[in-house]
Amino acid sequence: GAGVSQSPRYKVAKRGQDVALRCDPISGHVSLFWYQQALGQGPEFLTYFQNEAQLDKSGLPSDRFFAERPEGSVSTLKIQRTQQEDSAVYLCASSSPTGTPRETQYFGPGTRLLVL
Amino acid sequence: AQKITQTQPGMFVQEKEAVTLDCTYDTSDPSYGLFWYKQPSSGEMIFLIYQGSYDQQNATEGRYSLNFQKARKSANLVISASQLGDSAMYFCAMREENTGGFKTIFGAGTRLFVKA
Lengths: 116, 116
Hints:
The structure holds 2 protein chains of 2 kinds.
Chain A: E1 5-7, E2 10-13, E3 19-24, E4 31-37, E5 44-50, E6 53-56, E7 65-68, E8 75-79, E9 88-95, E10 106-107, E11 111-115
Parallel strand pairs in A: 2-11
Antiparallel strand pairs in A: 1-3, 3-8, 4-5, 4-9, 5-6, 7-8, 9-10, 9-11
Chain B: E1 4-5, E2 10-14, E3 19-21, E4 24-25, E5 32-39, E6 46-52, E7 60-61, E8 64-69, E9 74-79, E10 88-96, E11 105-106, E12 110-115
Parallel strand pairs in B: 2-12
Antiparallel strand pairs in B: 1-4, 3-9, 5-6, 5-10, 7-8, 8-9, 10-11, 10-12
């Protein structure tokens, strides 16, 4: 597709449920990022993939959060035993790495997760 | 410590006038990049403009320009000839080369309201 797509766009989960959020990056983009955006805040980095390798997962808030990108394209962010504080918009971004800070990330529309 | 500070939670501007959105940053890395993104109510983050720490000139992209004052560590966004469609959240962000260029750190954002 032309841009980054994410599904579902909206997800309502009961506390304790597991959820899986999908990201389809721009075709050919090697780098993929996940961010968490709480209401009224800027996005916060969660994790980064280069192809299938997860190079940085320092932003994942707990071991309930897990991300994978097994074939180096589509990525899934999984949250186990969801808690109310997990309610946020989860943004995915992809880029074609330049090895410099100049690299521009292209964002998807996000998945809005509400945990009741 | 806050790496990106946006001190204006909300700004109003009259249509067709110019507006400046403030951003200050904190880094000890000599090589870094500064970004501005627009986030309309649809939720998608739209890249607007980039400024590299070694760039000699202020970046410009159409109606957007970046007032980069390196010594003051500020990177204000100037939007000229405001349009109603400019109403959105605006985020300042930074990527430092020392982190391997993986993480982008965002500010809390400024909500811009353009009045007809």
